[in-house]
Protein 1
Amino acid sequence: MTRPFTVVLIVPTGIGATIGGYAGDALPVARAIAQVADCLITHPNVLNGAQLYWNLPNALYVEGYGLDQFAAGHWGLRPVHQNRVGLILDRGIEADLRLRHLQAADAARATLGLDLTEYILTDAPLNVSLQTASSSATWGTIQNPASLLRAAEILIQKAGATAIAVVARFPDDTESEALQRYRQGQGVDQIAGAEAVISHLIVRTFRLPCAHAPALLPLPLDSDVAPRSAAEELGHTFLPCVLVGLSRAPQFVLRSQAGFALQPGDLWADHVDAVVVPATACGGSAVMSFSQSATASSATATRIITVQENQTTMQVPPHALGIAATQVSSYLEALGLLVTQRAGLNAAALKPLMRSLGSLEP
C-alpha cells in the first residue's frame, strides 16, 4: 500500500508573480494539481479569489506563517470537518462598508452553511499603511497590532472561534500608477504584503488558522481591466473566499503540547512528496526548509519543482541558494512530472532517448 501523495503549491504574495500575483489567478493551477495529488497543501494567496472560490476537498488552506512552521517541522497539520470562524472588523471601516461585509458574512452562513461566531470590532482603528521595496515587492505595517490581538483573544475565549477572519481598512489610492498597472495585469499587488503581516501576527500568537480580506471602496468602472485582475472588480468585499477557506482550514498541532496524541490524518513535513514554486522565488522560509529534505538521499526526500514561466520580482533562483531542484518551463510540465512521480516512474523513460547504465567503482 502506498502512502498519500502530498504536494505543496507555493506562490509567494506581494512579489508580482505572473501567475498567482493577481486575484485568485493561481486557482486553475491548484485545481489541476489537486487532480494529481491525494493531498494539496497551499496558502490563501493561491486559493483566494475575492468573491470567487472553488471547493477542493483534498486541499488544505494554510496561512503563510503556519506553512513556514509546518515546513520546518515545528507544527503539524490536522484536517478538520468544520471550523467555527470568528470575524474581526477594523473599527476604522466606515459604517456602510462595514455593513457590506456583515452582509457577506451572513450570506456565507445562509447560502453556504458556514459556522461563524458573533463578530467583533477592534477597540481602535488598525491604521494599516503600505510600503513598496525597490524590488517592487510590497509589505505593510499596523499601527495598533495590540487592538487586533485583543479582538482575536475575545473571539477565541468567549465565542469559541477556532479560526479567525480579519477585515482591515486599507488605504484607497484609486489614481496611483501602481494600481492602474495591477488592474491591467502588469504590476504588483500593493496590498498583499500588508495582508500577510496581519494574518502572520494572529497565527504566530494563537496558533490558529487566519486569513485577511481588505476593506476598500469600490473602484471606478474600467473597461481595460485584465482577466487576471477582474475578480477584485466584482463587488464591495473580498470576504467570501476567506470564510470558505477558513471553514475547513487544518488546525496546527505540536508534538510537545500537553495532551498531544498523534491522529491518523495528521500531516508533517516529512509526508510532503513535492513542492512546486516559481523559479525565481526560492528564498522563502518554507522552500528553504523543504530543500533540506530535497538534498537527502532517502526515498522520502521532498522534490522541489521550480516553474520558469511564473516570473516574479524576486530574483532568487534555487541554484543561488544551493537548493537541489528540478526546473520545468510551465505548470503543465510540472503536472506531467508530478504524474510520473506519483506513478513511481523515472521521467526519463517517457523520452525517446535514454543513456545506458553506468558502473560504480567498489
Protein 2
Amino acid sequence: MIPIFPSIGYDRLRMEVDGEGVTTLVCAQGCPLRCKYCINPESSRDCGKPRHIFTPASLYKLLKIDSLYFLATGGGVTFGGGEPLLYVDFMEAFARLVPDWKINCETSLWVHPRQVERAARLIDHFIVDVKDTDPEIYRAYTGKEFSRVEENLRLLLKLVGAEKITVRLPLIPNYNTDAHRDRSEALLREWGVTHFDRFDYVIKEK
C-alpha cells in the first residue's frame, strides 16, 4: 500500500527559515494538539478535506524543479504541520526517492515514541516546538500533557544528538513570560539541548 501525506499546502524557495539553505515547507493536515493561537488551524483533521494528497512519487515530482537550489545551498524539504510525524511511513518512502536533499521536520513530538525512533533514522534536522516546559502552562495552551514531549525529546537526544535538534521556545501572550522561557531553557540545557530559537507570538487584534 502506497503511503500518503494529506497536506494543507506547501511553500517553495524559503531561505534559512526551516533549516539550512533553500527549503520547501510541506505542511501536514492532522495534529494531536489544540493550541490556542495555532498558526495553521486548518491543519486540524476536522477541518474538512486537505488541499493536496501526496504520494512519495507525486511530491518528489512536484519538488524536483528546485533540486539544484537544494543541492547548491545544502537545503531541501521541511515537513511541518499539523504534525508530520503522524506520517512517518510516507517520509520513509519519500526519503528513498530523493537525491542528497536535506529532510527536516518541524514537530511537537506529541506522538508515540515509536514514531520518533523511526524518524530519527531519516530526518537530518528536527525543529521541536516545545511551547513551555511547565506542565500547567503546556496543558493550558495545548490541551495535552507535557510528559510525552519530555519522554520523546529525551529519546531523540539519545538517538540523534543535540546538533540535530533546535528547540523553539515562544513567548505566548497570556500563557507564559520571559521568566518561564528562561526556566524552560535552563531545564532543557540540563537535558542536553544546545540550540534554541526564542521568539514572540504576535496576536492580531480581532
